[in-house]
Write a structure and sequence with these properties.
Strand order of the largest sheet: 10-12-9-13-11-14-15
Number of helices: 10
Distance between the termini: 63 Å
Number of strands: 15
CATH topology of the largest domain: Phosphoribosyl-aminoimidazole Synthetase, Chain A, domain 2
Order of helices and strands: EEEEHHEHEHEEEHHHEHEHHEEEE
Strand content: 15-25%
CATH superfamily of the largest domain: PurM-like C-terminal domain
Helix content: 10-25%
Shape: globular
Oligomer: single chain
Length: 432
């Protein structure tokens, strides 16, 4: 082992290993194969369990070498690029390589609370701006502006995501995105994120670490860091996310500042996530081949649902350019603009012909026999930002003008009332 390198190695209590065995070749006649639970911070020349053979990096495909290493590590749930020696571990082949019995899949209960926390912490890049970062009772963060923008949200399995439709990295990225977008919608720069995770003990550790990687990746895209969190046992998966941000000396852009004569603009397309959900529900994604002519861009729609990509820089830029009101479009364009209209005491009129990026959702709607406007106007989770700008103000380059503000109340669509549902309501009764 390299000096100073941390290594976490655990052996299952049913593995049949005796003290000292990890330093010698395993005797498969008398002892079961070691069950590795987790390895942290392996370097390219490190080996574990016993010198040179059981687990190492490299030579994964060199089967003619009897002392080489083999792959199929997903069966072990390991999160590092490590391999198993094909002489020591036996089993059915996996693309010509040895594999491991299903018992070797590592669960949260196998690793335990503090082992899981250590594994999660190992994935978090250090926040050099934090006074006290991950690992203490609480994080201590600087607030150079003197104010902190904060937002929190919940994601519950079966309501906000499905593990059979979305990978763990996508779920983690989506959880981070929907909170970081709220920070940007205030005209602030996202800085930090905390997350709570409630999970069943039988859940694979690899899944939890995948969620963590997804959050880390999305935070990096937003310029933020993960500074803390918590884990607990539960019957189903739930994520609780808190995002923080910095106004950099500017006033916050609330929902209450729109005025008659302002223009309404969007920082990105809407309806893609709802269309992607419809495609998944219809069984088109991952099912029988879809005619690309009849449904072009189907992959982009599904990706938009699994992993939205808010334009975080658009919020602060809108604030700099004089936005009078702003909101994250999370529950549906009509519904969220309705919040702006109510808070500002105005009427918002949306022009559907001006909505950006509607080609893919129109094609999907035609293939599925749906109305693309329902997705664009009432579908949520795209996390584009909607804002109002004074009539003569500069509209940021990445924004698209889609309507106007007038005297009155509520939201009009092409100057007429929108009679369908305007967006998502967790407590709306079915059919309403």
């Amino acid at each position: 082992m390299s000096p100073g390198r941390r290594l976490g190695l655990y052996v299952h209590d049913r593995a049949g290993q005796r003290p000292g065995d990890p330093w010698h070749a395993l005797d498969l006649r008398h002892h079961q194969t070691t069950k590795v639970v987790h390895v942290v911070s392996l370097g390219p020349d490190n080996y574990v369990v016993w010198s040179g053979d059981v687990i190492g990096l490299g030579d994964a495909g060199n089967l003619p070498d009897a002392r080489g290493n083999v792959g199929c590590l997903p069966d072990l749930g390991l999160d590092e690029n490590v391999s198993l020696h094909h002489v020591v571990l036996h089993g059915r082949g996996c693309l010509g390589k040895a594999t491991v019995a299903q018992e070797a899949a590592i669960t949260v209960a196998d690793l335990g609370e503090f082992g899981l926390i250590a594994a999660i912490q190992a994935l978090l890049p250090p926040d050099e701006d934090a006074v006290v970062g991950v690992g203490d009772d609480a994080a201590v963060l600087p607030a150079p502006d003197g104010r902190v923008v904060a937002s929190t949200d919940l994601l519950i399995e079966g309501r906000h995501f499905r593990r059979d439709w979305s990978g763990p990295e996508d779920i983690g990225a989506k959880a981070a995105a929907q909170n970081l977008a709220d920070i940007a919608a205030m005209g602030a720069v996202p800085t930090s994120l905390l997350f709570g995770l409630a999970i069943p003990g039988e859940l694979a550790v690899a899944w939890v670490l995948g969620v963590t990687r997804g959050m880390v990746a999305e935070c990096k895209r937003a310029g933020a860091s993960i500074v803390g969190g918590d884990v607990t046992a539960a019957d189903s998966v739930m994520l609780a996310i808190t995002a923080l941000g910095d106004l950099a000396g500017r006033d916050p852009v609330t929902r209450a500042g729109a005025k008659p004569g302002d223009r309404i603009a969007l920082s990105g397309p809407v309806g893609l996530s709802a269309a992607g959900l419809a495609v998944l529900t219809a069984g088109l994604a991952g099912g029988p081949p879809v005619d690309p002519v009849s449904l072009p861009g189907v992959d982009s729609l599904v990706t938009a649902h699994r992993r939205p990509r808010p334009d975080y820089a658009a919020g602060p830029q809108a604030a700099i350019d004089g936005a009078t009101a702003m909101i994250d479009v999370s529950d549906g364009l009509v519904q969220d603009l309705g919040h702006v209209a109510a808070a500002s005491g105005v009427c918002v009129d949306v022009r559907t012909a001006s909505l950006p990026g509607t080609g893919p959702i129109k094609a999907a709607a035609a293939a599925l026999g749906a109305d693309w406007l329902d997705w664009a106007l009432a579908g949520g989770e795209d996390h584009a930002l909607a804002a109002s700008f004074p009539e003569n103000a500069r509209i940021p380059q990445t924004w698209t003008v889609i309507g106007s503000v007038r005297s009155g109340s509520g939201v009009l669509v092409d100057s007429a009332p929108w009679l369908s549902a305007g967006g998502w309501d967790h407590f709306r009764k079915p059919g309403l």
